[in-house]
Design a protein that fits this description.
The chain has 79 residues and is an all-alpha fold. The protein is built from two helices and no strands.
Length: 79
């Protein structure tokens, strides 16, 4: 689940939980909205954790010796 889906679930859940006053038989709309908000928040936190470990945020190597995404290829030249 990515950022956009998490934010979408939070928005839809908030609308269902606090803006809809409809009565539907067989389902509690407000409870479904709260569940969607909770799932969206959990998805957002998990996405942030994985994004952080992937390298989107965090410390970068600024020593000038090449970053973590630098590939150095050394080839021997034939004599």
């Amino acid at each position: 689940m990515g950022f956009s889906l998490s934010i979408f679930l939070i928005a839809v859940g908030a609308i269902l939980a606090w803006a809809v006053n409809a009565e539907v038989s067989g389902i509690d709309v407000q409870a479904a909205g709260v569940i969607l908000v909770v799932v969206g928040v959990i998805g957002l936190v998990v996405s942030l954790v994985f994004w952080s470990s992937w390298g989107g945020f965090g410390n970068r190597d600024t020593t000038g010796g090449g970053g973590q995404n630098t590939t150095i290829v050394e080839r021997d030249r034939p004599v």
